What we know:
The complex is a heterodimer.
Chain A: E1 2-4, H1 11-15, E2 29-35, H2 40-53, E3 59-65, E4 70-73, H3 79-82, H4 85-91, E5 94-97, E6 105-107, E7 111-119, H5 125-139, E8 145-147, E9 153-155, E10 159-162, E11 164-168, E12 172-180, H6 185-191, E13 199-201, H7 214-217, H8 223-238, E14 243-247, H9 258-266, H10 268-271, E15 278-288, E16 291-302, E17 305-312, H11 320-330, H12 337-349, H13 355-370
Parallel strand pairs in A: 1-14, 2-3, 2-14, 4-5
Antiparallel strand pairs in A: 3-7, 4-6, 7-12, 8-9, 9-10, 11-12, 13-15, 15-16, 16-17
Chain B: E1 4-5, E2 18-19, H1 22-34, E3 44-49, E4 59-65, E5 72-73, E6 78-84, E7 87-92, E8 97-102, E9 109-111, E10 115-121, H2 141-145, E11 148-149, E12 152-153, H3 158-166, H4 185-196, H5 250-262, E13 267-275, H6 277-292, H7 300-313, E14 319-321, E15 328-330, E16 336-338, E17 340-341, E18 346-347, E19 350-351, H8 359-374, H9 380-383, E20 388-391, E21 411-415, E22 419-424, E23 430-443, H10 449-464, H11 467-472
Parallel strand pairs in B: 16-20, 20-21
Antiparallel strand pairs in B: 1-2, 3-10, 4-6, 4-9, 5-8, 6-7, 8-10, 11-12, 13-23, 14-15, 16-19, 17-18, 21-23, 22-23
Helix pairs in contact in B: 7-8, 7-10
Amino acid sequence: MVLQSLKNCFWLSCVLRTPKACFWSTASGGLIIQSVSNDVYQNLAVEDWIHDHMDLEKQQVLFLWRNSPAVVIGRHQNPWQECNLRLLRQKNIKLARRRSGGGTVYHDLGNINLTFFTTRKKYERMENLKLIVKALKALRPQLDVHVTDRYDILLDRQYKISGTAAKLGRTSAYHHCTLLCNADKFVLSSVLKSPYKGLKSNATPSVPASVKNLFEEDSSLTSEILLDAIAKEYATQHQIDHHITLINPADETLLPGISNKTKELQTWEWVYGKTPKFSISTYLNMAYKDSVLDVKVNMDVKHGRIEVCDIDLPEQWLPPGLYSELVKSLTGSKFCPNETTTLVTTLLRVHPQDDELHSRWSLLCENMIMLM
Amino acid sequence: VCIHRVRSCSSFIKSKYVCVFDKSALKFSHQQRLFRTSAVSCGQIVQFKLSDIGEGITEVTVKEWYIKEGDSVSQFDSICEVQSDKASVTITSRYDGIIRKLHYSIDDIAFVGKPLVDIEIDASKGVASEEDVVETPPMSHEEHTHQEIKGHKTLATPAVRRLAMENNIKLSEVVGTGKDNRILKEDILNYLAKQTGAILPPSPKAEIVPPLRKTEAVPAAPKDKARRVPVPVSRPIAFSGKDKTEPVTGFQKAMVKTMNAALKIPHFGYCDEIDLTQLVQLREGLKPVAEIRGVKLSFMPFFIKAASLGLLQYPILNASLDENCQNVTYKASHNIGVAMDTEQGLIVPNVKNVQVCSVFDIAVELNRLQSLGSAGQLGTSDLTGGTFTLSNIGTIGGTYAKPVILPPEVAIGALGKIQVLPRFNGKGEVFKAQIMNVSWSADHRIIDGATMARFSNLWKSYLENPASMLLDLK
């Protein structure tokens, strides 16, 4: 396998909008590139860039990438429904929303991502997955792996080792999938379990599945070996040289406009704000003095912001003026613990200082923030 | 009706399906839009059908509309996002015109081959000859609005084309970073910035920044998002920016509430300069000790501890006045707030019970609050219960400020930056001094100038001669 630095590769001059005569005609069929970055946002931005700017008519592209710990939700999913956001924040695991559909996945360096770029007409997921299975079998003939009609790859007929998603644009399309080599299954199962109750939405739900790492089946397998095998098979099928070009997703000269794409993927508006409208109907169990209060809460959240908020507190538990101010403050604000904390602590400043009120207020607000 | 032109083989640029009549239609429709209010729209309504998705898929779910009825669209603009079996598909418009009807709502099932939206296409479309780029200023209208380079059209919406024309820019010279290499408004702005050498604000509502001499620091805020260093613009730019109105939410809303309450407090200010020469040396020596213990030691822990020692002598500065101004409550705990500038805005967490903390304890707590603050994970207990606040605006810049008291507190201090300035010592010799300015604000209903001045002098003496803090440490 030959890793070639991009400085030596002229392929990019061919795809930029300034038409130049180049050796493009000598390349044929396909191109294999690998990201040097483990940042999920940068890598997703590369996918966007290739989708938007590259001409895939004569040359298809295989993009190989791995990420440091991150949870990636599908385009139309609800992060509160799909994962334990509190745990993610605590463990500093990133949350990203990709542009393709499908369900939620956990990425770490033990998981490899493969993106197959083609023109819209040549979009064909089965073929890509069969390519991967062929590569795996060529590497380890004894592996029992096959593709299901849900576009999953199963190991031993029961464990999911790969999930698929796709994005189709006007003239180009991509199909990407994961491959579990040696991911941390413990973290995976704990972050992909949502603690949030009472959510109702039409967001695409994920289908949970038992997973297994290829490493568990054969401990001689590493991410590098697997990446290489797949690249080799791709190269064979596209009749190109088996070499992988490295790219740096932070290189603005190489990929003009990429830093804007990366930034956009990190904005709150994209990650949380694109959540389809949903509602929450649940109870807060607040232990106050010697009793436990069950307080019903109803909220509607649209574009990640609270549209409607209703908290059924016992009468006079809070001064009515303060309650209505709380609701007014929350309405229109982000469904986000940080913003809510700031708002509720500010409200306390401007109200008479009373220890009893202070502790009730803190109790209510902390419970509300737990919903986010 | 559009004719699709197949792109030439020699281009490696992403294929564009361009309508032969497209350019002229756009040109005319651009002009026509100016007169739209007076003309009766009598365009032809075309039913844009959902095209084949591939893989034998016959139905999809509509997930998001990018346009609504009445919006005008250009060819290639995104219309909606649909999903089918893990694939998310962006449907783009084949026509220029106005959206007259959406056939589906969100979460409806849409069928391939059936109408998705109705678009009213502009009735009058003439055929205009394709023009090549001509280098004769000033540019004629056609060249600005739609340029051709060696057979490749540049894509841009009418608004972007208008912007280019108003600024005498050739679209062919602008690098487009949008989808299909289309030229976006940002690309025009960047091009302009490179021309004039000016740093243009990203949004049309940028403020004119007054010269930074006295920082009129809004609240105790070390943050000032809207302020950018003004770069002189070499020539005036004709700019078709639009005002943008958005609701006040989140952190801004919180600030509005706090400041409206602060308005009720009659503020008076008191300022002074502090010679931190000795403290600077002391901190240099202690920094490595703190590092070994895993803690970053800034000047703040010293400022905070000295304030607490001062509050022990002048407890009225750590008090709270009730709503009717009938009672003053002297708070036992010194919960000293530290103004923090985060990505989202200003927050003021506080260090609890400074009166029983060592300088090192304060440093540890500050580190904790700072990392939680930048991660957006401060809890309610960190943000409530403050009794006195310090704002170190000097880390960003400034000398004197006019901080705003955060209710229910009665005093606040803003610290400017540390500057090396010449001062006279006792022998009348000039020496290099590390000078920092402090600006206090206090509630004049219960605090008088003399109290503030004495507190400030005491605080100043602790910092100018750190060894004296040892005498009063509990």
